[in-house]
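Throughout this chapter, every protein is written as a compact record of paired, labelled lines. An example of such a record is reproduced below:
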Amino acid sequence: MHQQADGSHSPAFISPSLQRGPVPSPRALGTKTPSDDAQAVASQKSHSEAERRRRERINGHLSTLRQLLPCTSKMDKASLLREVVDSLKELKRKASEISKDLSCPTDTDELRVELCNSGSPNSAFPLIKASFCCEDRPQLVADLIRALQSLRLRTVKANISTLGGRVRNDFIFMARERVSVTTIQEALRAVLIRGSNGESTLDACNKRQKRILSFVHGLF
């Protein structure tokens, strides 16, 4: 209140900035509330739990690796992982060496006959490499044996692989007497033709599909 010259009083002037208005929330003022503290604690607890589970998974994997490899029970983690990497490289090298001698059957009939590098046409007993792929059938091996006997070929190495009703034969022969590559090709081609003439193309396809399905079901 202000006193005027005549002694009367007038209402005091109140600045708009001092007038009462809405009270801002503590969060608006940057002050943490109890709920904020609770959320922070829950978040920290969740992070700690996730980290604990992650460490348990890692330790479980390391324990499995220790069981797979010999003499690794007292290795530290770095040495164990290095040993695992070295073992995998060695396994990969061995698998590569083994795969050189293994060939899977293809979907098309194939025939190839050639002289080996260790043999020559002029040698007394040349080595001949032959490989062919065809539909598998009961009399295939018997027909093949008769063809080889008629040519007086001695088997030095043989590798036979089957998959889904197809068979691949890889041989190295030694000729007991002079025989040309062309003659061997014709004899083996006759074996392949004998098998293809024994059943129609549709029957062969149906049989192969059944064998593939049986092979796949056998895997599970």
Notes: The chain has a mean pLDDT of 74. The beta strands are 2-3, 9-10, 110-115, 127-135, 153-163, 166-175.
